[in-house]
Amino acid sequence: xxxxxxxxxxxxxxxxxxxxxxxxxxxxxxxxxxxxxxxxxxxxxxxxxxxxxxxxxxxxxxxxxxxxxxxxxxxxxxxxxxxxxxxxxxxxxxxxxxxxxxxxxxxxxxxxxxxxxxxxxxxxxxxxxxxxxxxxxxxxxxxxxxxxxxxxxxxxxxxxxxxxxxxxxxxxxxxxxxxxxxxxxxxxxxxxxxxxxxxxxxxxxxxxxxxxxxxxxxxxxxxxxxxxxxxxxxxxxxxxxxxxxxxxxxxxxxxxxxxxxxxxxxxxxxxxxxxxxxxxxxxxxxxxxxxxxxxxxxxxxxxxxxxxxxxxxxxxxxxxxxxxxxxxxxxxxxxxxxxxxxxxxxxxxxxxxxxxxxxxxxxxxxxxxxxxxxxxxxxxxxxxxxxxxxxxxxxxxxxxxxxxxxxxxxxxxxxxxxxxxxxxxxxxxxxxxxxxxxxxxxxxxxxxxxxxxxxxxxxxxxxxxxxxxxxxxxxxxxxxxxxxxxxxxxxxxxxxxxxxxxxxxxxxxxxxxxxxxxxxxxxxxxxxxxxxxxxxxxxxxxxxxxxxxxxxxxxxxxxxxxxxxxxxxxxxxxxxxxxxxxxxxxxxxxxxxxxxxxxxxxxxxxxxxxxxxxxxxxxxxxxxxxxxxxxxxxxxxxxxxxxxxxxxxxxxxxxxxxxxxxxxxxxxxxxxxxxxxxxxxxxxxxxxxxxxxxxxxxxxxxxxxxxxxxxxxxxxxxxxxxxxxxxxxxxxxxxxxxxxxxxxxxxxxxxxxxxxxxxxxxxxxxxxxxxxxxxxxxxxxxxxxxxxxxxxxxxxxxxxxxxxxxxxxxxxx
Length: 813
Known about the structure:
The chain is of the alpha+beta class.
């Protein structure tokens, strides 16, 4: 006996019989069309043109998916054999009895599961409805208790009052609730002050309702009394507290050169709120820096506040910020400390903390230098006894190349040693590291103290050689790009600090010399600028790093004891940072100028040599004062004669020269009697050395070939012949019976290219906008050369009074 047919099978056979009869098939289709027309008239079915664009896209997407499924089904049907026809005989080759019984049990099981699922679904729906009901009731009870109407009902306690009274009380409750909510959710101080001013007037005070209003509206009595009689348009700022002072001191601490080092790369920048700054990298972890700040400051600042006050330009170094100027002393000792800490021999791997625990006091020279009797032989304590087990430690070492040639390279090598030998070596290196760490802290501390206490007759000059800039073209041929045809420009950067002003500067030269004559050739225009703009300055303080081939050598000592006196200065001091720890503001200036030069090249201009680089950067109107030093200026500098080396040159960190031909030096810098006019105090074993053969000519004006004579004359002047050495100087040209100050951009035979300013008042000039006024003028149209105008505001400048008077008397109509 055949099994009973399912509903789907019955419907399938019905459709087959219907479609087999053409008349019944036609009648079925006609009924379907009539029904669709009726549904269309009733609005049940809508056409594709009667729906929105979004519904059109959805329908068409569904049609595409259906068509895709139909095609896939057709492809599958072609790959499979035809199915067994439905009208096969019920006997003979039908399915076996076991299969038919199994299918029957499966159908019965599925029906039972469907019934169970329906029952469980109905039960779940009832539980969900019950939960939502009680949730809603609880919400209504919770909100109704504090609603304005509920407040009024509790206030009246079912007393009979007129509708007008009830409505007035309800309005009062609703208004108070709105004001309290607005005050509570407001995040701006001005909004809270406005609410307090509006709601706390004189009438509340008259009827003694202030306390009632404060509690109802949700703000304090102090705020209500402070803003009760104030105008609505005036707002008060919160008074600065000690917390604000602590935040300022934290920001200043992060910007110190011994806490974060300035990056020098042209791409090492960071931007926040449209401010692009040179990035500074932290020299230690934030926790260690917080401990140092807590030890130096009396403010009890939490670690969270300390981290939140970090300036945006000070960042923690990452793998991308690979440090390439690390201190060898620090790195080798840190490798040892890390190895000992990993093996459980010491309880810390912070070098500064470990060094401080081996001295009596961290700020005393005799303790750090090992001259103190109490801490001279103090060693860092170990947690357990060292063994003779072989271990490995990484170190930076110098090795020779070959046996005959005297060439060396520095490599990072993994060495084998024992725990006992590593402990002994670590204690010896830590003893030397105390001196190194003390010099770092002391020199940076003296530098900060000097900057903050400069007098009117002093200036501080922090200088350093930046990495040479490789000049380039906007478009280059292959032999230039891959060959050695690129010229290099030397950048000598620095920052000049006076009593109230900070002037960044940079001198550019095609000469690649970095020796003492080249240093003072770069410094000559800077000292001339100091003598012109700050005539009251008589004392110079130099700060730099201490490379033996540049600043810290006998040749530089020879020139510093003669050149400043020739310029007219009375005395000077040259201070050196500790070795490998001389990063500072000049490094950021070099990165800024190189980035500007690369931007010029990207915009389609060529920078083939140092002079073009100077011209292009000069035209950007940067705040950095630029000077050009030619190769002739460097070669013309006084050559250093044969001198006897000064004993202890590598240990000295301060050199003082008060009279020509004589220097005084000591191991660390000291300015304890500087405010009294004395630099050569007897502190820290001051020594004296005399340099023979130092020429000391009388102070004279700077020759015109190096500094424009206009800066040393009382009135403007005009040279007999204007050539390329005056490019970048300020001048005045005459055009249509009017005068215009500007900058000389180029000189070609008898023509001069000048970028001019426009007049916008009496002795007031500004740069034209939106286009620059750059034109060629004849040689006779250049009236005179003038000093650089002084800034009046962000837009306008003015000429010096003597210069403007001269212009009025001779040229201005």
